[in-house]
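Fig. S4 source data, part A: sequence.
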Amino acid sequence: MSLPAHDVVVLAGGAGRRMGGVDKAELVIGGERLLDRVLAAVPGAERRVVVGPVRPSREPVAWCCEDPSGGGPACALAASMRFVHAPYAVVLAVDLPLVGAAVVAQLLAAAFGRDGAVGVDASGRDQPLLATYEVGALRTALADGGSLAGASMRSVVARLDVARIEVAEAAMDCDTWAEVAQAEIAVARAGGSP
């Protein structure tokens, strides 16, 4: 089965508060910046959109910022929608060093015929920033919730019919220095790529 046409949206505007304000997109894990690792996980994307401050990137990307600044992930995702033209959007947080093309392909396949597919971590928790959404349904869900400033992605996903896909280690994110150290070990164990 061929995958549906898709764009990728990477949310990279977080403040990294638990890590002393570090720019997580610039963290290097397995010899590669997180921004570049995450963009590489979606090789078939027609367009690449990054929400956050402009930084160097190996891939050509469209840059945008949420309004208001610091408005949170739902607000950031809404800001990206003017750049998304494919029928599906792969939505990824920038701090997912173990996400790879195989997981993205699983999410895209599971989203077909539904409003999307959300990754589920090993504890059974939905990861709405490791997901694929049908763009029309996502736009409607973002518009139906009122003000998005400070809104959670879980409240947006609650309005959608999504498949839930176990993604195991791919859901490992880097919110603390201890998690960065764990990610380095996992990436080294995987031979440098997820």
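Fig. S4 source data, part B ends here. The mean pLDDT is 89.
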